[in-house]
Write a structure and sequence with these properties.
Layout (H helix, E strand, L loop, with lengths): L1 H17 L10 H8 L3 H10 L2 H4 L5 E6 L1 H5 L5 H5 L5 H9 L2 E3 L4 H4 L4 E3 L5 E7 L2 E4 L2 E10 L2 E6 L10 H8 L3 H9 L3 H4 L5 E6 L1 H5 L5 H5 L5 H9 L2 E3 L12 E3 L5 E7 L2 E4 L2 E10 L2 E6 L8 H8 L9 H13 L6
Parallel strand pairs: 1-7, 8-14
Antiparallel strand pairs: 1-2, 3-4, 4-5, 5-6, 6-7, 8-9, 10-11, 11-12, 12-13, 13-14
Helix pairs in contact: 3-7, 10-14, 14-15
Length: 334
């Protein structure tokens, strides 16, 4: 605890040293950046994205502004490609990832671990050796006051993920069963839509812990509607980070029924499932990794699962191995 406080103090002192004295500012964010002379690429990108009027509006906004040198560090041709009219949506996504609603001064930045951007995704904020980083970029000048917000200069362009929920899950490597089930239920397209969506995603181990034969049964064509209902019970509309979730609150799922969040032993739980890893960003939402498959209350939905219950209790190890063992008709040794 003392170490964390000391690191925060160092970061605060470092940002204070980098800060421009805050005075009453008469010019908006865009005008201030243009007049600084070192944000020509950023200004041109804002123009191409149609965001100039937005950042000249009342705000307030906090902008983590990459310098011209920061843009020059991107792979050759990246900026030229982004400012093409056909790539406007992608350019907007990148630029809005550098903007946080509200006016967040340096002294407040160092107290944060993350901040939700106008893009929707979060930037991670960390301090190391007295330096403040926003994702991988370092803050090199802080607290440039503007009439509608504040600018913190950073030394790299930070990039949001462009992967949709199914692609993020695929790259994680622990959701093979979930993805196979989503494909069988015809939900991959829905999970790739604009959203945003919040997905409580059971791991492969969570699916393996279901009663033996359950997955095979659910994947049958005649059980497609039940499979879709179970998967939709893991999805909530909107982008809800862990900090947005309230203990004791119920959240309506796409299946129709609600799931509730509670805190047990300091661990967040959704239904009976523990959240193992929260806040995995996707371009169209956020994923929270959970350790159990959630089942909606409907008896019709639960039927394909309950049909496969052969024992009142089976260990996680035995459950995970049972499919292969049943095929060989062998007994499982403890």
């Amino acid at each position: 605890m003392m170490k964390t406080c000391f690191q925060t103090l160092l970061a605060t002192l470092a940002l204070t040293a980098l800060a421009v004295p805050i005075q009453a500012a008469e010019k908006d964010i865009v005008s201030t950046a243009v007049e600084a002379g070192s944000f020509k690429t950023l200004a041109a990108a804002l123009e191409a994205a149609g965001l100039v009027s937005t950042l000249q509006g009342p705000g307030p906004f906090t902008v983590f502004a990459p310098t011209d040198d920061a843009f020059a560090m991107l792979p050759a041709g990246t900026v030229e490609e982004l400012v093409k009219p056909e790539n406007k949506a992608q350019l907007i996504a990148v630029l809005t990832y550098h903007v946080v609603p509200g006016k967040v001064a340096a002294a407040d930045v160092v107290k944060l671990k993350a901040a939700k951007t106008v893009n929707g995704q979060r930037v991670e904020i960390s301090t190391q050796d007295g330096n403040v980083r926003v994702d991988q970029a370092e803050v090199v000048t802080a607290d440039i006051a503007c009439s509608n917000g504040i600018i913190h200069v950073i030394d790299q362009v930070i990039l949001p993920t462009s992967d949709k929920i199914p692609d993020v899950a695929l790259k994680a490597g622990v959701f093979s069963t979930l993805l196979a089930a989503a494909k069988a239920a015809g939900l991959v397209e829905a999970l790739s839509a604009e959203g945003p969506l919040t997905v409580f995603a059971p791991t492969d181990s969570a699916f393996a812990a279901l009663p033996p034969g359950t997955i095979d049964n659910l994947l049958k064509a005649e059980n497609k509607s039940q499979l879709a209902a179970i998967l939709k019970f893991h999805v909530v509309s909107g982008r809800l980070y862990a900090a947005d979730l309230s203990g004791g609150h119920a959240y309506q799922t796409l299946q129709g029924a609600s799931i509730s969040l509670k805190i047990e032993g300091g661990q967040p739980k959704i239904g009976q499932a523990t959240v193992l890893t929260p806040d995995i960003d996707a371009a169209n939402g956020v994923i929270h990794v959970i350790d159990e498959v959630l089942l909606p209350p409907s008896d019709d939905v639960r039927k394909p699962v309950s049909q496969n219950v052969r024992q009142p209790h089976v260990s996680a190890c035995r459950r995970a191995q049972r499919v292969a063992i049943d095929r060989d008709r062998e007994d499982c040794d403890d």
